[in-house]
């Protein structure tokens, strides 16, 4: 590396970003220093502000700098529906679909004992307290369709069953616009199993 | 967007990076907030430090926080050789080749009148002063092999000619390991033109 210490430090810090290798870290650093110092300063402020002040919503655990996030405070949501997702970005995808009007609970991960992610890390105690509060009539399990996601859904399903609360799981099947030729066998098996009369 | 204001601000700031679209900005922001707050703080500090303190070397114009960069201060370099490149990253490529022991002059761009990049923006006055100082015997034109790069090389070549200083241009030809089948016609034409006895 033939850059000065501060430039090298910037390149190293950028390399910690996911998907950024040595070459692109160099490209990003030099771009900002050569052409967009305002952007660099703005990014520094945004990183600092977010890293210091963004925490978790007391109700749903999503990332927010407020004690309770806007969505949980919203008066127009159906409070009897609770959708459990793994990450804040899953919430955003569901909101963008426009098809859901209930509340959310964000696990911030999924059960993965080998990585030290257990019920405690996912805030399941808080979820249980919420189920015990009696407002939730249906809990929608929207964890990912992976082994860990299914395990997580199963465990949370059991929490619901113990309280007589209905638990449902997102339907699995052929994605919209999906050509059967390119849909994997596991998905097709689910789609067949879940077939519906027309 | 269903994120809180601070998270949105971070996503927007990340979008200004080259090659980062809305989806990857979101992915980077959430990764840092969910899994690497230390990395976020470190990046904020690095950005701030570099944006505030990195300037240009008084001799070669490369990016550095020191008045004169380490390479220009180095006593083991051949001061009669001056290699002109467009960007600091070009200097790094040449240094990594290990084949050059002279000094550099970094234009921080190339002539492009339509973008408002003229001799002044490239620091050609400073380059002329350096040529006038009498230390440089040979100037190596290592600007890029594009129309603007060639124009820039031509203009700087004229500055040398006016002072009786030898100007040379990097050889153009088949890259090492290059299969002729996949080398473009322009490169092959240059390689033929520049052929050498074996």
Topology (elements, then pairings):
2 copies of one chain form a homodimer.
Chain A: H1 5-15, H2 22-35, H3 37-53, E1 55-56, E2 63-64, H4 70-73, E3 78-85, H5 88-97, E4 102-106, H6 124-132, E5 138-141, H7 147-163, E6 166-169, H8 185-193
Parallel strand pairs in A: 3-4, 3-5, 5-6
Antiparallel strand pairs in A: 1-2
Helix % of chain A is: 40-55%
Helix count from the secondary structure assignment of chain A: 8
Outline type of chain A? globular
Spatial sequence of strands, sheet with the most strands of chain A: 4-3-5-6
Structural class of chain A: alpha/beta
Provide the succession of SSEs of chain A.
Answer: HHHEEHEHEHEHEH
Largest chain interface and its two residue counts? A-B, 58 and 58 residues
Poorly predicted sequence stretches spanning 5 or more consecutive residues of chain A: none
Beta-strand portion of chain A reads 5-15%
Major sheet details of chain A: 4 strands, parallel
- The count of strands of chain A amounts to 6
What is the multimeric organization of the chains shown? homodimer
Head-to-tail CA distance between termini of chain A: 65 Å
Q: Roughly how many Å is the radius of gyration of chain A? A: 21 Å
> What is the average of the pLDDT values of chain A?
91
């Amino acid at each position: 590396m033939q850059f000065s210490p501060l430039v090298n430090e910037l390149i190293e810090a950028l390399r910690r970003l996911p998907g950024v290798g040595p070459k692109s870290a160099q490209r990003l650093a030099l771009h900002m220093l050569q052409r967009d110092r305002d952007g660099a300063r703005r990014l520094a402020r945004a990183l600092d502000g977010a890293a210091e002040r963004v925490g978790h919503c007391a109700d749903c655990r999503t990332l927010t700098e407020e004690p309770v996030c806007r969505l949980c405070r919203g008066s127009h949501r159906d409070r009897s529906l609770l959708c459990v997702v793994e990450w804040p970005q899953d919430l955003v995808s569901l909101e963008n679909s426009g098809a859901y009007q209930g509340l959310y609970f964000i696990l911030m991960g999924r059960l993965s004992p080998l990585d030290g992610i257990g019920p405690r890390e996912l805030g399941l105690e808080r979820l249980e307290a919420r189920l015990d509060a009696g407002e939730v009539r249906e809990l929608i399990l929207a964890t990912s369709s992976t082994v860990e996601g299914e395990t997580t859904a199963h465990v949370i399903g059991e929490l619901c069953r113990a309280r007589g609360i209905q638990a449902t799981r997102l339907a699995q099947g052929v994605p919209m616009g999906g050509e059967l030729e390119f849909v994997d066998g596991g998905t097709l098996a689910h789609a067949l199993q879940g077939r519906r009369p027309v």
